[in-house]
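Please, why this fold?
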Amino acid sequence: MSDLAYDYIRDSLRAQPLFENKTWQLSPSAWPLTPEQLAQLEAIGDACLEYHQALETLYLRSAAGKNLLRNKTLLTPWVAEYLDRGKPAKLIAHARDPKNRGAFPNVIRPDLLLTDDGFALTELDSVPGGIGLTAFLNRLYGMRNADCGLRNEASQWAEGGGVLGAHDAMITAFYDSLAAHRPDQRNPLIALVVSDEAATYRPEMHWLAEQLQRLGKRVYCLDPEDIFPLGATLCFDIEGNPEKIDIIYRFFELFDLANIRTANFILESWQAGEVAITPPMRAFQEEKLALALFHHHLLADYWAEALTPRAHKLLKQLIPASWIIDPAPLPPGAVLDGPRVGHHALSDWRQLASASQKERDLIIKISGYHETAWGARSVVLGSDSSREEWQRAIETAIADAPRNLHILQEYKKPKRVRHRLYTHDKHIHESDGRLRLCPYYFITNGKPRLSGALATFCPPDKKIIHGMQDAALLPCVCGD
C-alpha cells in the first residue's frame, strides 16, 4: 500500500475534525499486523462475547442466591454486592429485569497492549469512543495514490494488504449491530444519543450518522434533550414533525444518567417495549472489577465451567492479574487476595504503601460508575509515581470503597516497537514507541464481527497509553 502524503492526511483531518480540539502525530502508513495477530484478534472477539455471557449468568445467579456450579455448591452473594455497589435501586432493578436477559453491548472493544508475551487485555469497553474516527481513518488509509488522485483499494483485509474496515465495512457493521435490535423493521429510526459529558465524541457520532444517512438509513445524532415522549413512545422533531425513535444507541456512561433530563422517559419507553436501548443500561457490564472477578480464586471453578476451554485459556493468558481493593476488616490471621509485598501476604491494603518500586509495578484505577472511570483519568501506576502519590492512591481507594470500588492490576509493560511517522517538517522517520490496539467487534445475530481496529502508537517514555498529542492514531492493515 502506497504512503499517504502529509498534506493529504492533514487536510483531510482538518476538513472533518472528529475530536474537539484534538491533534496527534501523523504517519504515512497504517499499522501492520501479522496474519497470526489477526487470527488471535478473531479469537479474542469470540472470547470477549463468551466472557460477557458468563458474567451475566454470574451476576444474576449471585443476585438470586442461586448455585453457580453443576456438581457442587458455590454461592456468591458478594459478587452482586460488589457489582451493584453505589448504584441507584432503579438501575439495579433495570439490570435484573427479565426482559434484559441476554442483552449485551452491540459493540465490544478491548484495550490490548502489545507486550513481549503477546497481547494483554487491560480493559473491556462497552461504550467505546473512536468508532467514527476509526471508520474515517479506515477510509483515508484504504485509498491509494494513483495518477495524482485517489482510488478505492480493491484488496480486502482477509486477502492481505487491505485495511481492516476499509470500504466502509466498519460503518455498515455498526449499523447492522444496531438494526439487529429491531429485526421486524426494514429501516428503523435510530438515535445516537450523546450526553454533554461525552461531548468530545459528538463530532464523530454526527459524522457516522451523516454517512449512514447517505446510505439511506434513518440514523440521527441527538442530544438527550432533543428527545420527548409522545404517549409511551419516544420522539424527536424532523422539520417540525415528531418522528418515533425505534432504537437508541446510548453514548453516555451510566453514572451520567442522573444528569440526563429525559432519562426517565427513556426507561419508561423501554419498559413499554416501544424503544430498544443498546448498549443495555446494565451497570455490571461496565465495571472494571469484573476482570478481577475472572481471577478471583473462589470463582476459578465457575469460569472454567462457564466458558469453552478455548476462551478460558485465552482469557487467562490475556487478562493481567487483578484484585478488588475491599477494605473490609479481616479476622486475625487472614490475608488478602492480592499481591505480596516483601514476600509477605497482605492483611491490610495500606501495606501496599511500603512496597518497593519494583513491587509497585501495579495500577490502581476506579472500577466504574464515576466520572473518572474513563479516559485513564483515575489510573495511577505505582512504579511511575512517588511513594507519596502511591500512598494517596491507596488511601483514596480505601476511602471510596463504600460507594466506588477500585481495582489493583498487574502492570503489563508494552514492548518497544517501531513505526514511521512524519516530522513537523514533513519528513518521514522511523520512531520507537509502544502500542495499544483497540479492535472493534460489532455483535450481530449473536456473533462478534471484527470490523476495525485503532492503533495508538505512543512515545516509548509513556507508561500509560491513550490518545494524546504526541501519539499517532492509525487504522490497521494485514502485513505479510
Summary: The longest helix spans residues 35-64.
